[in-house]
Write a structure and sequence with these properties.
The complex is a heterodimer.
Chain A (H helix, E strand, L loop, with lengths): L3 H23 L4 H23 L4 H18 L1 H4 L3 H9 L5 H14 L8 H30 L6
Helix pairs in contact in A: 1-2, 1-5, 2-3, 2-5, 3-5, 3-7, 6-7
Chain B lengths: L9 H20 L4 H14 L3 E7 L3 E8 L2 E8 L7 H15 L5 H14 L5 H19 L3 H23 L4 H22 L5 H8 L6 H12 L3 H28 L4
Classes of the chains: A mainly alpha, B mainly alpha.
């Protein structure tokens, strides 16, 4: 019998792969590269989900997931060639907290009304903004650090 | 001082500078990092037999200075709209490597760039719309939308992407497009999810606009700053913020119209 957590993990990996491949088409990746994008998306979402299940923060889990995707693309240098970094980036796109960003902006707009309904709104919006900022920073740093440490000689 | 016995004239240097700038511009418009753009331009310049002195990449224009012996020349080229095109980026990098190995003239490089820009395939609009709709719906599942909202988010995201591409092809301002598409996609997803009795209408509206979140520029902004190009990194970050502000405006209008505010 499958443990419910594994069902959740599989769900996140499958939809991470679909989102990464979908954005891969938007970014005009070739068909063979799209499979790698999907694999990178599944890997990144899988690692992030495991991290969150281990009670890590979203930011920490996103950082480790981005590092893993970047390291995997470095290890697969031979089949991926110079597109390794782009594939790792496409795999991390489903982790970009776009919805948090939108909710943070909507929350800030609500705060600026003449009589804000409650002060907790300010706290929630600020929290969303900080989470967006730190999660984006975590993804960017997670992708960049391995790429700088293990330079891909291909241009 | 170069010991190259052949001293290039200014007219020749100008041609080389403009060819290198053209390659740099295409790479930037395809979403490449500044460091990659500079490496590509330097490969072309050296392959054509002269030395790069310096390259500056801004959000709206690029400049290059090249040298042959005592002769130097500086040229500038304006930039088109920034996007992401992985296959064109890939073939342009391969061309830069080919040029760096020598044996190509400026005219041959220009012809090769013309051919690559014209012939590098792009996915058809219907496929991109379908894929982006599916990506938004998958993104929505990752955020926690229920299955009842999955279809409306797919529809909103897909139609939004198709209209977005048509508007951008007509030359409509990218930030205005962000507001229009955010309104259209979130209204379709929100209305559809509401009709189907979804319990996650708000999330569905946000998921449908995730096609507008500029994921590549966000990470490029950071990488550019890390690589020592803070001006371009900051410009990219500001453009990301602007897109999100305009997109949020679209969602806000949709929420008002659907009576959710």
């Amino acid at each position: 019998m499958i443990h419910p957590d594994f069902v959740h993990l599989a769900h996140q990996m499958v939809f991470g792969a679909i989102a990464a491949a979908g954005f891969g088409i938007l970014f005009n990746f070739g068909l063979r590269s799209l499979m790698w994008c999907a694999a990178a998306g599944a890997l990144a979402l899988g690692v992030r989900t495991l991290g969150q299940e281990a009670q890590w923060s979203l930011e920490a889990a996103s950082f480790v997931a981005a590092v893993t995707a970047s390291c995997a693309s470095t290890m697969l240098r031979r089949p991926l060639g110079p597109r390794g970094n782009a594939v790792a980036l496409a795999g991390c796109i489903p982790m970009v907290p776009g919805a948090f960003f939108g909710q943070a902006l909507l929350g800030m707009l609500a705060v600026t009304t003449p009589h804000p309904e409650n002060a907790a709104l300010i706290l929630t919006s600020t929290e969303y903004f900080l989470r967006v900022f730190f999660t984006l920073a975590a993804i960017g740093a997670g992708l960049a650090i391995p790429a700088h440490l293990f330079r891909n000689p291909d241009f | 001082m170069s010991d190259d016995p052949v001293r290039r004239k200014h007219r020749e240097l100008e041609k080389i500078a403009m060819t290198a700038l053209r390659l740099a511009r295409i790479l930037t418009e395809c979403g490449a990092r500044v460091k990659v753009v500079h490496e590509g331009a330097s490969l072309v310049v050296r392959g054509l037999g002269v030395e790069p002195v310096g390259i500056r990449t801004g959000y709206a224009s690029q400049e290059i200075t090249v040298r042959s012996g005592e002769n130097t020349i500086t040229r500038m080229m304006s930039m088109g709209s920034h996007g992401v095109n992985h296959r064109l980026d890939h073939v342009m990098r391969a061309l830069a490597v080919q040029v760096s190995q020598g044996g190509m003239s400026v005219e041959a490089v220009e012809r090769a760039m013309d051919r690559l820009v014209k012939e590098t395939p792009r996915h058809p609009l219907w496929l991109v719309a379908l894929a982006v709709g599916m990506a938004c719906a998958a993104f929505g599942r990752l955020l926690g939308i229920d299955w009842l909202a999955f279809g409306p988010v797919f529809l909103g995201g897909g139609i939004g992407q198709a209209v977005r591409m048509l508007l951008l092809r007509r030359g409509v301002n990218a930030y205005v497009v962000a507001t229009v598409i955010a309104f259209l996609a979130s209204a379709l997803a929100g209305f559809g999810a509401h009709l189907l009795g979804s319990g996650t209408v708000n999330l569905a509206m946000m998921a449908a606009i995730l096609l507008l979140v500029p994921g590549v520029p966000i990470t490029n902004a950071q990488t550019d700053i890390m690589d020592g190009y803070p001006s371009m990194g900051s410009a990219r970050a500001v453009s990301v913020l602007m897109v999100m502000i305009f997109a949020t405006t679209g969602v806000l209008i949709a929420e008002w119209l659907l009576g959710m505010r």
